Amino acid sequence: MPEIYDTSEPDARAAGIAAAVAALSRGESVGMPTETVYGLAADACNADAVAAVFAAKDRPRFNPLIVHVASPDAARAVAALADPASRLAAAFWPGALTLVAPKRLEAAISDLVTAGLDTVAVRVPSHPVAHELLAAFGRPVAAPSANRSGHVSATTAAHVIADLGDAVSVVLDAGPTPIGVESTVVGFAGDEATLLRAGGIPRADVERVLGRRLLAPVVDPGAPLAPGMLPSHYAPAARLRLAATEVGPGEALLAFGPTLPIGAENAVETVNLSPSGDVGEAATRFFAALRRLDRAAETIAVAPIPDEGLGEAINDRLRRAAAPRG
Ligand code: TXA
Ligand code: MG
């Protein structure tokens, strides 16, 4: 079992950061809170440490990881950020935006992190505990979401321990993550920006700074998709029935907004992501709600959620969670 530090308590926080830095330096993994979800953090320049992260998650080696750093300058040392990437960095860092840009070889990021690609995904988290850890460690940290590969992401320390407890040395418990869905991932082809994954920064905010639309990714039929883009991902054990307007016998209900589906009173268990219909509030509750309803029923009826703001990220996760498993 990992050492767990409650970062709301100043002494425990200082001790936790020191223990986490020591663990990263030894090539071990740390449960790191970020503003989006918890990450499974390892030294991005230590191939053995990165290999252990892939093994702990049971993650396919072809799916590259995000490199986390403490500042935009540190990000520029890892990735070559030309316009418009640098404009997005200036607008959204620190924050829930990941940029995929050409990798700088001198940064010595392990090839495992980038799955051998010549691009690297990089972000500067805004969470104060993540920032403090990254600044204290002083080197780039690779961190996928701290869940088993393909499973529901971790938004609390308890989720990290349930999924990966034996594989992490230290967990920094900063409570539930404030945004609740992963970062928005943007890639570039010349002047064009591509939305590789909807996430914590709404598409419209990115497009406003770009002054143009984000493109849909071009899928190369010959190349394997990154699992964030795989049809089945973020999946609970239960079956999901999307855009449900009524609740069937024995079903659990993932509700949204003030109007409940027909038969909602018969649901074996209900979580309303946001009774007032706020997609941001819904995002903060989303993954924990999936985990809870997964324990209650074999089928989860999911009420329609609008595609605006963080709703796009939630609907993206729901479609993948509902997709046939493969
Ligand atoms: O919010 C987040 O992004 C969280 C926290 C911990 O920072 N991290 C996270 O990591 O969600 P992960 O590994 O679950 O998702 C990383 C995503 C995947 O969809 C991966 O395919 C994509 O980033 N990615 C990483 N490097 C890439 C690259 N060079 N080119 C294209 N996609 C890349
Ligand atoms: Mg993930």
CATH superfamily of the largest domain: DHBP synthase
Which CATH class of the largest domain?
Alpha Beta
Instruction: Using the coordinates shown, work out and report the CATH topology of the largest domain.
Output: DHBP synthase
**Percent of residues in helices:** 25-40%
Structural class: alpha/beta
What's the end-to-end separation, in Å? 31 Å
In quaternary terms, these chains amount to single chain
Describe the structure in your own words.
The chain is an alpha/beta fold and 326 residues long. The protein has two domains: 3-183, DHBP synthase (Alpha-Beta Complex); 239-322, Threonylcarbamoyl-AMP synthase, C-terminal domain (Rossmann fold). The protein is built from nine helices and 14 strands. The protein has a ten-stranded mixed β-sheet, sandwiched between helices. Strand 9 and strand 10 (192-197) form a beta hairpin. Helix 1 packs across helix 5. 51% of the residues are buried. Magnesium ion binds at residues 144-145, 153.
Chain-wise SSE layout:
Elements: E1 3-6, H1 10-25, E2 30-32, E3 39-43, H2 47-57, E4 66-68, H3 72-78, H4 85-92, E5 97-102, E6 119-123, H5 128-137, E7 141-142, H6 157-164, E8 170-173, E9 184-189, E10 192-197, H7 203-210, E11 239-241, E12 252-255, E13 270-272, H8 279-294, E14 299-302, H9 311-322
Parallel strand pairs: 1-8, 2-8, 4-6, 5-9, 11-14, 12-13, 12-14
Antiparallel strand pairs: 2-3, 3-7, 4-7, 5-6, 9-10
